[in-house]
Amino acid sequence: MANGLTYARKTASTEATKQLAETLAPYLHPGDVVVLSGDLGAGKTQFVQGVAAGLGISAQVTSPTFNILLEYYQGRIPLYHFDLYRLDDQDELEDTGYYDTIDADGVSFIEWGEKFPGALPYGYLEIRILVAEDGGRRVFAHALGNRARQLLTVWANDSKARLSKTTASAGGFIVPGGAPMSTGSIPPIKVAEAKPADSPAETM
Q1: Tell me, what's the pLDDT at 166?
Q2: pLDDT by residue (tens digit) across 91-115?
């Protein structure tokens, strides 16, 4: 099991997941790195869209699958959105500006970062999104490093986020310097359910 702090929440839809992501935005600082993992269609890009809205970014946020990196400067702090799905080798990161960007003056969100665990910084917040049997999403937030633990702790204390601390297996979270662990070992856990769609906390 990877060391760190883990919280979780069940959301009813990708839209509710976006609203959850929006509650993270006020606590982000320049230099924060968030790694997004989960299957295709799980809602990783939608999570970034929610964060962008919370940062005050009005531009349309789309998947950077073909661009590798998309940058947004209209919000409270710059947002850098990576998608490493199409890269085959860690050496290719040099040509994308990856290393300079994650040390820059904004917050970096990295989809498919688990492909290159050796290229991740020492500390980061991982958001793993799993599709539940009922079509909802199970969102796990796992912190590695002091800054990420601080970020996750203050986010979890936000009543709108409704995250629940969990001792579930960290299967699926990235082992620093090694390969990603299997997602299959995360057992069912009791986490906070999303409020009905007409609740103020779940409407845009």
Answers
A1: 87
A2: 999 999 999 999 999 999 999 999 9
Length of the chain in terms of residues written:
204
Residue with tokens 């299967």: 171
**What DSSP string runs through 84-150?**
-TT--SGGGGGGGTHHHHHTSSSEEEEETGGG-GGGS-SSEEEEEEEE-TTS-EEEEEEEESHHHHH
Domain limits of the chain? 6-168
| Residues 140, 130 contacting (CB under 8 angstroms) | yes
Three-state DSSP at 27 gives helix
| Residue 169 clears pLDDT 60, i.e. is over it | no
Write phi, then psi, for 128 (nearest 5 degrees): -110, 125
The Cβ of residue 2 has, within 10 Å, a number of other Cβ atoms equal to 17
**In CATH terms, is domain 6-168 a member of 3.40.50.300?**
yes
Strands 107-111 and 33-37: parallel
Determine the 3-state secondary structure of 184 from DSSP: helix
The encoded tokens of residue 201 equal 């906390």
54-81 b/e (C-beta count within 10 Å ≥ 16 → b): bbebeeebebbeeebbbebeebebbbbb
DSSP class of residue 160 equals: T
What are the beta bridge partners of residue 160? none
